[in-house]
Amino acid sequence: MDQRADDRGSGRASGPEDSPVPPVSEPRAPDAGRMQVPPGNPLLLSLTLQELLARDAVQVELVPEKKGLFLKHVEYEVSSQRFESCVRRRYNDFVVFHEALLHKFPYRMVPALPPKRMLGADREFIEARRRALKRFINLVARHPPFSEDAVLKLFLSFSGPDVQNKLRESAQRVGDEFMNCRLAARAKDFLPADIQTQFAMSRELIRNIYNSFHKLRDRAERMVSRAIDNAADLLIFGKELSALGSDTTPLPSWASLNSSTWGSLKQALKGLSVEFALLADKAAQQGKQEENDVVEKLNLFLDLLQSYKDLCERHEKGALHRYSLVKRQMVSAAAQSREPESVGQLESRIVEQESVIQTMELRNYYSLYCLHQETQLVHAYLPLTSHILGAFVNSQVQGHKEMSKVWNDLQPKLRCLFVGPHSAPAPPRPPQDGPSAH
Question: What is the distance between the alpha carbons of residues 155 and 133, in angstroms, rounded to a whole number?
Fold first, then answer.
């Protein structure tokens, strides 16, 4: 019996694990988004990191003004390079969009959203959430199935009112990916024989990669924090030197013999604040650059890896759900069998149960099929490691080069601070390589 016809007769709800395949006879518009079969082996992805990054670049910026009479809501300006669009979205719009993705793509890596705003959220929290939302929407916009779906275009380009209802309608108009993919019923044919072993090995590998990158991100954040603290210390150090040089307290009479020395020292100290302010600026720039080019890219990759871990958990929970659902239906059928029923009713119930089991098996294989592709997608992002390391090394080289120049420019100005015999300027001696002779 045809699988779609079986599922029509089951009368079950359309959840992601047990929803029926849509009827064959149901009319569908040409642009309804039914997924086409890609050429070649559909299980294999041949995308490179550069091709993924080139799919779109989405910016998420805070809107300065706030709306709302009593509650002040944060709005974001979301601009897409691909769609040449710029729309305003609130956090709840992202939430509805996220729910729509999970509804349509339960077997894909849907990145998690940052937490909802708490009472008393400060500027630091709002900025961290903006960055997280930017990472989320870029991962989604570059994901192969997501990038071709109408719900993404709606979120990035629809500028009319009530975008949340539009997103819900778009997601509910058709079923999930399983119901709209022509390969869903044949997913098992494309899977390798040892798919379960490969799945376990891939899950363990990505778990280890996640743990290592998590530690790298933590250390990178500490280095950025130290750079920012160093910038603040340099700035304060220079200000204190300037304050010391600007001191107007008169010298006591017993120190008048050294008045010219103190005056020249003050004049030199007063002028050093400019160089120290420049050093502070260079250190702050380096910290900011590494936050954007190193920490944020590490966070992007961690978000992707976390979404893979979440997908693995959904796959396992889905298998348990399918098993418990079959068990409940068998118990229900046993209870109903106490009542006399006709041969036709018995056959109809058996066919319905077989249809349920078959659909669940197909969904399980399709879930593994998608997991196989999502694993390839994670590996396509792995070369991002070289981008991160390159950005980190370049930032360190450039930062040390620029600060070294300022330190070298500062050194001649220190000569007047060191007074040798007969009041002649005597700069400090450089450190000796070996022990000093006696």
Answer: 13
DSSP symbol at 292: I
**Strand pairing class (58-62; 75-80):** antiparallel
Crossing angle for the helix pair 296-336 and 384-410, to the nearest 10 degrees:
150
Residue 215's Cα: distance from chain center in Å? 16
Q: What is the DSSP string of 296-351?
A: HHHHHHHHHHHHHHHHHHHHHHHHHHHHHHHHHHHHHHHHHTTS---HHHHHHHHH
The radius of gyration of the chain from alpha carbons, rounded to an integer in Å, stands at 32
Return all residues near 275 (Cβ < 8 A) that are at least 6 apart.
Answer: 238, 406, 409, 410, 413
Query: Hey, which of 189-198, 240-249, 418-427 has the most confident mean pLDDT?
Result: 189-198
As beta bridge partners, residue 88 has: 77
At a CB cut-off of 8 Å and minimum separation 6, what does 386 contact? none
d(CA 181, CA 90): 32
The answer to whether the CB of 17 falls within 8 A of the CB of 323 is no
What's the pLDDT band for 37 if we cut at 50, 70, 90?
Answer: very low
Helices (H), 246-295: 259-271, 273-290
In this structure, of 99-108, 159-168, 274-283, 349-358, the range with the lowest mean pLDDT score is 349-358
- For residue 298, give both structure tokens: 């590490």
Report the C-alpha gap between 241 and 273 in whole angstroms: 7
In this prediction, residue 71 carries a pLDDT of 55
Cα angle for residues 324, 325, 326 (degrees, 5° grid)? 90
Tell me which H or E stretch contains 245: helix 195-245
The pLDDT value recorded for residue 22 is 40
Q: What is the pTM of this model?
A: 0.79
Evaluate the CA torsion angle 355, 360, 363, 365 in order and state its sign: negative
Contact, 308 vs 206, CB < 8 A?
A: yes
- Whether the CA torsion 338, 339, 340, 341 is positive or negative: it is negative
- The pLDDT of 379-404, averaged and rounded, is 96
pLDDT at position 270, please?
A: 82
- What pLDDT was estimated at residue 335? 52
